[in-house]
Amino acid sequence: xxxxxxxxxxxxxxxxxxxxxxxxxxxxxxxxxxxxxxxxxxxxxxxxxxxxxxxxxxxxxxxxxxxxxxxxxxxxxxxxxxxxxxxxxxxxxxxxxxxxxxxxxxxxxxxxxxxxxxxxxxxxxxxxxxxxxxxxxxxxxxxxxxxxxxxxxxxxxxxxxxxxxxxxxxxxxxxxxxxxxxxxxxxxxxxxxxxxxxxxxxxxxxxxxxxxxxxxxxxxxxxxxxxxxxxxxxxxxxxxxxxxxxxxxxxxxxxxxxxxxxxxxx
Length: 266
Fold this sequence. Notes:
Blueprint: H1 3-13, H2 18-25, H3 31-36, E1 39-40, E2 46-47, H4 53-63, H5 67-70, E3 105-108, H6 113-119, H7 123-128, E4 131-132, E5 142-146, E6 161-166, E7 177-183, E8 187-196, H8 197-200, E9 202-206, E10 217-220, E11 224-234, H9 244-265
Parallel strand pairs: 3-5
Antiparallel strand pairs: 1-2, 3-4, 5-6, 6-11, 7-8, 7-11, 8-9, 9-10
């Protein structure tokens, strides 16, 4: 199917003809006909008109169309039907509670990552993972993940621990914040996220390490099993006692003070 065929399929989906579809998207009566059927040529053939940006935008907005469908990148026509995996729910499939009835934090160490992908919904598997209570982590379900690799270096280092709060709704993911994304294809990844669920049914995943070995990529919403918003972390990496910029600022202020003393003496 080319783009004209897909526009015809959208027209048929909403039980319209070319004229009525033209009215809905605010174009002239012959515009859709020339896109779908083509304009008559002198040799008796018909040449289809390529839809412009304004026409495509109007179709997407009027009928809530998934843009990837129009350009042949997806078989899913309607934008809403592309957003959620039916398995994604507002709570984790399995949680752990203490004797007091409060939820524990479940720890997922590096060596448990592979098993977690198959066992995240398995009560027996989750019960085998370490659990603990963490002060100040309440009002939600929390998991602790051990950081693996260097993709988030500058912010998180290999072996750090990040504490994530379960995201109940993919729409709630905020641009520029750090999340743990659990998916069948990519496993468990720690990334800075740009949310394009509403517009494209995707998340954009970025690394803080800018050495060029960790490119930005996207993940479809229907691949996502769990999302955890990182609210706190623990690290063995201790900051330097004094940042180089602080040293420079101190040096600069001392030079200014010396200059003032010299000027005052003169």
